[in-house]
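Request:
You are asked to prepare a plain-text protein record giving the amino acid sequence and the backbone structure tokens, at your earliest convenience.
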Amino acid sequence: MRSRTATWFECKISYEKVMEDGLQKKVIENYAVDALSFTEAEKRIMEEMSSYISGEFKIKDIKIAPYGEIFFSDDEMADRWYKAKLQFITIDEKTEKEKRNNVNYLVQAGTLNGAVKNIDEVMGGTMIDYVISAVAETTLMDVFEYAKKQADEKPEVEG
């Protein structure tokens, strides 16, 4: 389990997909990419999707994602993406009242229970008091990391 902070963009793609019965159907799918701008997000999603889609596709929408950090899983069964809302609990020193700050995360897991387990695994290593206030499955098909792609493309150095 690892986490990654970045500016994430959700991209909505429309294309003709060959279904299991062999027929083509127009589908709209959601993906996330990390990028520095909308322009870079558009370029990145076009590059990523061109290796998966043989025909024509259209970008229907790009928006800044409502999460800043993603918890990735190395588990092969972790094929879904969950949006999690965590509340961080702090005590105001002046008023001595409890204060809760909401933060959204994207969590990769195979099941809802797996998503909760992954959150606890990452957050358990911190000293922050938190409450998981919501976890819901998203419609994201995949997440494309820029840093991971760069690392994958580095040539191996022979020594």
